[in-house]
Amino acid sequence: MSEQTDQREARNVPGTVDELMSLLATCADVWDMPDRSGDPVDILDHDRQCAELLRRDHPDDEELQIAGLVHDIGHLLAPGDDAGHGRTGAVAVRELLGARVARLVELHVVAKRYLAATDSQHTAALSASSRRTLVTQGGPMTNAEVAVFEADPEFAAALALRRADDSGKVVGLMVAPLASWRPVIERVAAQPRP
Predict the structure, then answer these.
(1) 74 vs 37: CA distance, rounded Å
(2) If you average pLDDT over residues 134-152, what whole number do you get?
(3) pLDDT for 22-44, tens place per residue?
(4) Could you tell me if 65 and 184 are in contact, meaning their C-beta atoms sit under 8 angstroms apart?
(5) Quick one: pLDDT at residue 8?
(6) Rounded Cα gap, residues 193 and 38, in angstroms
């Protein structure tokens, strides 16, 4: 193995599509809360549901769809770190999937805080686990934080990811298997990086 490969493995950073597919497959029967008190589906099922919702609602944005597919791998890489799992996931996928996908993964937690501050109906519909983790993630945004987030170029996409994240928790929902996402991941990974 090369020194670069060893460094990526030590940081849990998938360097190839095969490595990412393997990491995602590992999310089967892994839960956002180690004691399974969180979401009612495992991380892989949740992420596939989220990606499917984004594919349905945003068919021309494959980067957003793949952000949905990988947005919670931070739970696998850093169990119990509810506040930092978005950042952890973003670091893990940045090199392979690019800055935009990584940014969206990181922003899915930020978008939750935004919606908690601006959309009382959305907040009331949060799962018990999401309401509990909102506290560790900083709680609802302040007015100043709201203004900054609304100016972010990825604001709309981050909200779409968050809404899919909150909806993709249906026990027994049949969605496309992980393998069906490989061509999309390959296209996103092959995009030129600045």
Answers:
(1) 17
(2) 94
(3) 999 999 988 877 767 677 899 99
(4) yes
(5) 39
(6) 36
> pLDDT tens digits, residue range 9-19?
434 689 999 99
Quick check: 86 and 106 in contact, CB under 8 A? yes
Q: Cα separation of 40 and 34, whole Å?
A: 12
Average pLDDT over residues 154-159: 98
The first and second tokens of residue 34, run together, are 């180690």
Can you say whether the dihedral through the CA atoms of 163, 19, 106, 31 is positive or negative? positive
Tokens standing for 118?
Answer: 């601006």
Q: Does residue 136 carry a pLDDT above 50? A: yes
Q: Rounded to the nearest 5°, which phi and psi values hold at 30? A: -115, 140
User: Concatenated DSSP letters for the chain?
Assistant: --HHHHHHHHTT---SHHHHHHHHHHTTT--SSTTS-S-SS-HHHHHHHHHHHHHHH-TT-HHHHHHHHHTTHHHHHSTT-TTTHHHHHHHHHHHHH-HHHHHHHHHHHHHHHHHHHH-HHHHHHS-HHHHHHHHHTT-SPPHHHHHHHHTSTTHHHHHHHHHHHHH---TT-----GGGGHHHHHHHHHS---
Longest dimension (CA), the chain: 52
